[in-house]
Write a structure and sequence with these properties.
The chain has about 475 residues and is mainly beta. The chain has 2 helices and 39 strands. A hairpin with a 5-residue loop joins strand 21 and strand 22. The longest helix has 18 residues.
């Protein structure tokens, strides 16, 4: 008789076994599992899960086995001693109970329509609606990976052991998308939102982008969503986790050649080129709008407003493209033309770049519609470079540019490095000589190092007042760690 109590097993993580269509191979979270002669695939997968549990200091885990030849799947709970509980009978009973309840109530509750897969927008007529379903109830949770030793020395005043740790996708980062949600990338290519303090999974989304910092919180058709522009797609995930669902799939809007999508300036929209953009109305129906030629979109709002900026004016348009207001502003003296790149720092500040004859950057206050201060940088950050922002400290960094946009705003020239995080006046980065910090309070931020184990050790992927989050790879396995600040 099994000693496993399913109610006490955390919902996450869930290890995934996949048996190939030709029944000749099996993988665990994408990694090939060695199968001995005449050994059963499930038995080999179970043994691989037990080994992985020991490596990650876990006692029990949920697992899903998938037979690619039939697309069938079944769920299990597996302990580090090799005990297995097949959940198929319980799930079948729960499904039967649910069907009886549905027949008894004789009601069909429609919470929304989630359009999965590709949407071709030839006529742009159908409304794209993302389902908003109830959150799952929080269950008792024990943090996983507690006490794991960090494979790279953290910055001073931080613990060298983890408050929690979880497997992660190689090369991934993290994104504190809200005060109670930290996005991490899973080995199977999905994204999980975790409680930052405990590591407990509270939301999970399929088909995640490689770069989690590209995901933004916004609204679509009146519902909160996570949105990301990924290659030739705009992906939209409902921020609510449907009950009894392993993960939510994104609504995917396909982009045509030459089109780009933006998600960090308010309501997501698609740039069609030639001064046309495609935006959703209140019901999620996409339509085309012409913006004033010679201008760039600053923001799009959930109530249908579009704000654009030209060389000397800021326009407010309604959902049909009619200009309802315009304000003059003064661009930096050496700037030519209109700003052709925009990044959001916070609700009241935008970072602008003029990438014309004279390269310029400036910070715009959206309350006064004035450029507060500007600089002529060594290089304009490219579209693939991540903007790192500490909204509380009003500091930011991107490319080789550091920004302080508080009462005494200024730009700081950063040395050549791969930026990973910003906290207060401190920028964290990776270099060929190891992880470094740079001080935004200095006119020219010099690199400072701290004692680390190896030059290839990573700098933190995120730094807060309470902790750092480190993503590191050991023996081809990547893990995300939280290390608390030592008071």
């Amino acid at each position: 008789m099994t000693t496993i109590n399913p109610e006490k097993v955390p919902a996450f993580p869930v290890y995934t076994l996949v048996i190939s269509e030709d029944h000749k191979a099996v993988t665990l979270d994408g990694a090939t599992v060695t199968v001995a002669d005449e050994q059963d695939f499930v038995a080999a997968g179970t043994a691989a899960i037990v080994a992985k549990l020991h490596r990650h200091h876990l006692s029990v885990v949920r697992a899903r086995a998938i037979d690619a030849s039939t697309e069938s799947s079944w769920d299990m709970i597996i302990t580090n001693t090799g005990e297995v509980l097949d959940l198929s009978e319980q799930q079948e009973a729960a499904q039967a109970h649910q069907e009886r309840v549905q027949r008894r109530t004789k009601r069909l509750l429609i919470a929304g329509v989630s359009i999965m897969g590709m949407l071709t927008l030839g006529g742009v007529t159908a409304a794209v609606v993302v389902a908003n379903q109830p959150e799952t109830q929080a269950t008792a949770y024990t943090p996983q990976g507690v006490g794991a030793t960090l494979p790279a020395a953290p910055p001073p005043q931080h613990s060298t052991t983890a408050a929690w740790s979880h497997p992660a996708l190689t090369g991934s980062t993290v994104n504190l998308i809200g005060p109670d949600r930290l996005l991490t990338a899973d080995p199977d290519g999905s994204v999980t939102a975790r409680n930052p303090e405990t590591g407990q999974a509270v939301w999970r989304g399929a088909n995640a982008p490689e770069n989690l910092t590209s995901i933004h919180t916004t609204t679509w058709a009146g519902s909160p969503v996570y949105a990301a522009a990924v290659g030739d797609e705009l992906r939209l995930w409902p921020t609510a986790m449907p009950v009894d669902t392993y993960s939510v799939s994104p609504t995917v809007i396909a982009l045509e050649p030459g089109q780009t999508a933006r998600t960090g300036t308010g309501t997501p929209y698609i740039d069609l080129g030639d001064w046309y953009i495609r935006i959703p109305d209140g019901s999620g129906k996409l339509h085309d709008v012409m913006i004033p030629p010679g201008s760039t979109v600053l923001r799009t709002t959930s109530d249908g407003q579009i704000i654009t900026i030209s060389a000397n004016k800021i326009y407010t348009l309604d959902a049909n493209g009619t200009i309802t207001a315009e304000t003059s502003y003064t661009s930096p003296k050496e700037a030519t033309g209109y700003p052709n790149r925009v990044w959001t720092l916070d609700e009241k500040h935008l970072l602008l770049a003029w990438d014309g004859t004279n390269r310029m950057m400036g910070v715009l206050n959206t309350d006064t519609n004035q450029v507060l201060f500007s600089t002529k940088p060594r290089a304009i950050p490219g579209p693939s470079e991540d903007l790192l922002v500490d909204t509380q400290a009003r500091t930011a960094a991107i490319g080789s540019v550091g920004i302080r946009y508080g009462d005494k705003g200024s730009f700081v020239d950063l040395k050549s490095a791969s930026l990973t995080a910003v906290h207060g006046n401190t920028v964290y980065a990776n270099t060929n000589n190891g992880p470094v910090t740079m001080d935004l309070a200095r006119p020219e931020a010099e690199m400072s190092t701290w004692e680390n184990y190896r030059t290839e050790d990573p700098a933190p992927a995120l730094v807060t007042d309470e902790a750092i989050y480190l993503v590191a790879t050991q023996l081809e396995e990547t893990t995300v760690y939280r290390a608390d600040r030592i008071r």
